[in-house]
Amino acid sequence: MGGTILRNAKLHLTSEDFAQADSLVVQNHRIIPLDPVLLEDGTSEEIDLNGLHVAPGLIDTLINGCAGVTFGASPNKETLEKMRRYQTQKGTLTFVPTLISGPRENMTQALNSVAAFMEKHPGVCPGLHLEGPFINSERKGFHPVGYVRSMTESDVSYLKQYKKSIAYMTIAPESVKPKFIQDLRDSHIVLSIGHSNASFYDALASFKNGVSSVTHGFNGMRLMTGRDPGILGAAVLSDNIFISLIADGRHVHPALIRMIHKLVGNRLFIVSDAQAVAGSPQLMSSFTVSGTEVFVDQARGLIDAKGSLAGSNVCLMDSVRFLVRTCGFTIDEALEAASLTPARMLGIDHEYGKIEGGYIANLIIFDDDFRIRYVVQNGFLKTSAELL
Asked: Binding positions for Zn(2+) (predicted)?
């Protein structure tokens, strides 16, 4: 029979089967409740966690790079492997590499690399995040303006061809015709609104057509005012729209994070928007993303020459800690925003994001200071030392 029994733990984000439980079993790559038979037959390994926290593996849906590499600059399997190793060490067991606006050939290479990576590492990467080029140049951030454009019929055909390698796309609805949004939605491509100058009513129309999420709220979009609730206002008032925020202490004020959470509850999720400097083995004073130099400023974060923010240097567990210690979230609320809600947004919550019988055994085990002590990925347990 066999399995690995994790005992004496604080379990988070559990189903009713694990209510009041302090133990679980990992068997055949899946999570199952503890059966007394497993304790009696002597074939299972038992690990006493001495009160450590156990939660679903974190899911980061927006990573430009980390560990000294940028996926957009080198969109190949080697880059993805470096990103995977670093993210696993930090408790992010499912991640979505991001490609910002650029040439078609770069997009094709990225999609093909992600497809090969997905085949090698099932469950680690649900696909690529295409953040552009179908965005608004007025809200482009550090995207190279020469590649920002409107979507064409040819683009729709191309995207549908690669749909299995696309986790989701960030678009500006003013750059994508409603019929294209509907066609992509019907092809099961998840769409998110971002880098957009859409009004409140434009955003509502895009949600009706098939957009289901907002990318890095408060950044790269028309903001809420007294006369225009904007994209975020439309999302807050729409019961089925997810909102992602960058919880690094620089992109969004903690009070605004608390406010959005109070308004939308479990429709809020967090992303790192990490860049190459996150976990870089070498000290980096600057780096380049799609031709734009990004500077590492200890006071202001990652900024371009104009002083605009250009991603972050955090991992998602840093953001979980920030939500708890600075934004007033409970541990379960913070973990939900970093695992179950992004799983729901991506449509993978039937197997990921929760401690439930039959779910894939992707688990993180951490202490009260949010330091990773063990990782269980696809049923295989490793200590933090073994991950280095």
From this structure: 131, 195, 216
